[in-house]
Amino acid sequence: MTDSLYDIPLKQIDGSPSNLGQYRGKVLLVVNVASKCGLTPQYAGLEQLYQAKRAQGLEVLGFPANNFKEQEPGSDAEIVEFCSLNYDVHFPLFSKLSVLGADRHPLYAGLTAAQPAAIGDGPFRERLKGYGIESDNTTDVLWNFEKFLIDRQGRVVARFAPDVAADDPRLLEAIETQLAKEA
Prior knowledge:
Layout: H1 2-7, E1 10-11, E2 17-18, E3 27-33, H2 42-53, E4 58-64, H3 76-87, H4 106-114, H5 121-130, E5 147-150, E6 156-160, H6 169-179
Parallel strand pairs: 3-4
Antiparallel strand pairs: 1-2, 3-5, 5-6
């Protein structure tokens, strides 16, 4: 599993080819993001986390996705402009992809297979039910802003529910634990 996540072809938001291999040896927080979601203000906390922990080896990686109630309708250029103007985002963003369904990107297939359950997912899952939204498959990404933590060796070590914010003690502790480990 170690190399496979690193080798999956990706596109940066400017369209240039990429993969996670360029972040080998760093701790990665992979987040599916959206511009028109109730959780969109999490961009601010993710940027703060990125700025605070980047020097220690953390990379926050944003993957725009339009899988949930079409909350990321924009083009890659529109997403960059939105993130820059509204949240002054400097962490790396990638080209829009799918995190669910038949067209699910191989990165998200690998992430969910490696970490089928999310920490803190119960309360958010119940809130979504209140809006008539239920996921039959509990291993699927539940909503925008779900977070996957990848260690310095490229292993998925934790997964967090969409409403677990960047300053949540559970997330911060998991990140600190990984940052303390050598590459």
